[in-house]
Design goal:
The chain is an alpha/beta fold. The protein has 13 helices and 15 strands. The chain has a single domain, classed as NAD(P)-binding Rossmann-like Domain (Rossmann fold).
Length: 341
Amino acid sequence: MHYLVTGGAGFIGSNYVYRLLRRGERVTIYDNLSRRGASLNLAWLRSEFGADSFALQQHDVRDAAQLAAAARDADVIVHLASQVAVTTSVTNPREDFEINAWGAFNALEAARLSGKQPVFLYASTNKVYGGMEALTIQEQETHYAYRDYPQGIPETYPLDFHSPYGCSKGAGDQYVRDYARIYDLPTVVFRQSCIYGPHQFGMADQGWVAWFIIAAVLGRPITIYGDGKQIRDILYVEDLLDAYDAAVTHSAQAAGQVYNIGGGPANTLSIWREFGPLLEELLGRPIPVSQDGWRPGDQRIYISDTRKAARELGWRPRVGIAEGIRRLYHWIIENQALFDV
């Protein structure tokens, strides 16, 4: 099949393109290459499969005509291209809106106008649930916990977009759902939690698992916002890609559906009070950190209830936290030259 992957040179995109090429799919990457690491990820893919192994459309998702042309004969569209940081959305909300909301709309229109009814996968975010202030949260020694949601947050939890990023991604989320209802496009929304893995060029404001490891390995300063007890369910990238494949395989069942995709209750970690000691053990030395105030829209806790994906897609995470972090740590160690700039 022909896969069009917007943001295909990014972290998740390049890992998925690698998987698709390895099994012989035809792939078009649509990416403006603005993200740090994009050119390095393209070089990696070319070194593995050859310079002509995939098509590259170096354009922006805000360019509706170019995106429509690229999608003309796609069987599957995987829309990953986005502005990814809450902090950036706060400082530049217009650009955030144009890339995330307008870009998602352009991708959907490209799918609709192609006439091929391609399977359309959309990478949404748990930020569509907002700050979740109505929840009763219990503070424990190293992390926060839900009192009333032991299995995590289900897809039926009320939406409450918080921050320009939450609004822009949430707008795309709802447009993707509605295009299944109105135009019968087989669209699938994945409300993703924290995804991590190799080829992730994490930064202080996005991709925190990779960023903490990169900073610790290179001796760069680390700032913890809030108290470090914020808990997330984290998911290794290969497990996420299994969910994408399952949605394509079961597209008739998955069409029009929303899935919360993350590590679930079995794969939770507080961002420093629990992750810090794990990283210090891998590194073999203490890691100095500084602290700052809470960032806007930061959730004290988010854990995905993944049971719907298990029921309907037969999907479950397979890579545990210790193994996944160990893999990412060793990839960063082996590729320090990529980050030491």
